[in-house]
Amino acid sequence: MKHVEKLDEFVAIMAERKLSEAEAREFRALLKESPESLDRYLDHCALDTWLAASQEDLLTVLTRIDSEAPRNDLAFVETSRKPQAGIWALGGSIAAAIALVISFAGREGDQTSEVSTVGESQKSRSAIERATRPEIASTGEPVLLASVSNDRGDADPWKSIQSTGSVQHPSLKDKPPVTVSAQEEIKFNRDIRPILSETCFHCHGPDEHGRRADLRMDTLEGATMDLGGTRAIVPGDVEESEAWWRIISDDPDELMPPPESHLVLTDEQKELIRRWIEQGAPFEGHWAYEQPEAVTPSSKLAETNAIDGFIHDRLQQEGLDFSEEAAPETLIRRLSFDLTGLPPTRAEVESFLASYGEDPESTWQHAIDRLLASPHVGERMAVPWLDQARYADTNGYSIDGGRHMWLWRDWVIQAYNDNMPFDQFLTEQVAGDLL
Q1: Quick one: which of 219, 217, 224 has its CA closest to 202?
Q2: pLDDT at 46
Q3: What is the residue-wise DSSP string for 307-339?
Q4: Looking at residue 89, what is its pLDDT?
Q5: Residue percentage of the chain with pLDDT more than 70
Q6: What is the pLDDT of residue 333?
Q7: Which of 1, 124, 137, 152 could form a disulfide with 130 if both were Cys (CB 3.0 to 4.6 A apart)?
Q8: Which tops the pLDDT comparison, 348 or 6?
Q9: Bigger pLDDT: 333 or 145?
Q10: Whole-prediction pTM value?
Q11: Please, which residues have CB within 8 angstroms of residue 169's CB and are 6 or more apart in sequence?
Q12: Which run of H or E residues covers position 194?
């Protein structure tokens, strides 16, 4: 409850002024750490969308919802709804507005006298607009919540999306760094699929039950399909790609993702999508079914270590270079933790330091061979596998009986220590006692 109360304090502050940088950081941290606070904030945002419209606008929306038939075009947001759903949603929103206004009355004593009914509380409505979505109050352009529910009757599907961990509201989103240089080729799986998955696939992805406007963006066929004279993606032609115009639109009824979703695309993400379309919008399947391509690093370091060659190529691309080599005592400590999960002993460190000054490369290779021969390597390597399998030595307090899972645990450790080929390891994991 303390988190929710803190959230209400922030909302009240935003009703009066803009948050300071320190307050904004605390606000973002609160919403990321507290699902209850995020849920309450999203309630404010959903309510704000209704309050931002006049009563005449709301009646217009309900009339349109009642009269229009489903359209098979790039409308992206469905407008065919049952009239009962719209009326009940309106009634619920009005009731929520009354409750929210009452909750603010205790903190905003000087505004209480102005709040008598929802219909005449224009000043309170403006304060809530500033508190829940400052960008609406600043532009003065109301955004109507046309999507009251989907065909299955779910109220506000965007709220459930946000409550499961997607924190993409503009007030929460930090500006991400640009990760793809202007000269680098855009890769769908690496650069584009994560963007579409986060912001588009909820309504235009593989789930046919949740799909809207008959548009599917996760396949080339779906994204380029003719939808009444328009196509979401026209490979190589940004100007003819309807999805691009929706992404950069200033019209809230046209903008994608829609404002009521509280999902946003950064300028960097928009630029990646534009470049991807210009490069022919190539789609890729699941990485496991893509034919791997042999790549040879250009760096001379690849002659002795291919991994260093790839790393050096990317560092050069970003205008960077390797850091200076660490001190010998740091190197042996890092190596020991990486391979065994344990720190080196004092004797191991002293032996390494004594040899490193005379022949660094030979000493380094000898240390690697020695640690790889340790049984602790299998223990270290087995940890991620056992974690993913939810391994535990015990069932827990008071319900333990005979437990023999440690036999499988030791088998996994020994498999790593024996350097068992992965295909054999996977086969024996799946088949178990059938072999």
Answers
A1: 217
A2: 53
A3: HHHHHHHHHHHTT--PPPPPPHHHHHHHHHHHH
A4: 44
A5: 66
A6: 97
A7: 137
A8: 348
A9: 333
A10: 0.47
A11: 41, 45, 162, 262, 264
A12: helix 193-199
Sign of CA dihedral 200, 206, 209, 211: positive
Cis peptide before 257 (omega within 30 of 0): yes
pLDDT at 45: 62
Given a cut of 90, whether residue 342 has pLDDT beyond it is yes
- Per the structure block, which two tokens stand in for 234? 């026209």
Question: Can you read off the two tokens belonging to residue 17?
Answer: 């002024």
Rounded to whole angstroms, the Cα distance separating 435 from 430 reads 10
Please write the tens of the pLDDT for every residue from 195-246: 999 999 989 999 988 898 889 999 999 999 999 999 999 999 999 999 999 9
> Is the alpha carbon torsion for 155, 156, 161, 166 positive or negative?
negative
What distance, in Å, lies between the first and last C-alpha atoms of the chain?
Answer: 55
The Cα 107–Cα 284 span in angstroms is 54
More confident residue, 114 or 357: 357
Task: Give residue 179's pLDDT.
Answer: 61
Q: What is the dihedral of CA 237, 241, 247, 249, to 10 degrees?
A: 100
Specify whether the CB–CB gap between 153 and 85 falls below 8 A: yes
Residue 402, token pair as written in the block: 């005979």
User: Rounded to whole angstroms, how far apart are CA atoms 53 and 43?
Assistant: 16
Percent with pLDDT over 90 in the chain: 39
Instruction: Please tell me the distance from the alpha carbon of residue 430 to that of residue 422, in angstroms, as a whole number.
Output: 12
Show the tokens assigned to 282.
């190539």
In the numeric block, the tokens 């607009």 are attached to 129
Tell which residue, 316, 311, 348, 305, has the closest CA to residue 329: 348
DSSP track, 43-87: HHHHHHHHHTS-HHHHHHHHHHHHHPPP--STT-S-----HHHHH
Nearest Cα neighbor of 162 from 45, 284, 285 is 45
Residue 235 structure tokens = 């490979």
User: Residue 122 is encoded by which pair of tokens?
Assistant: 């224009």
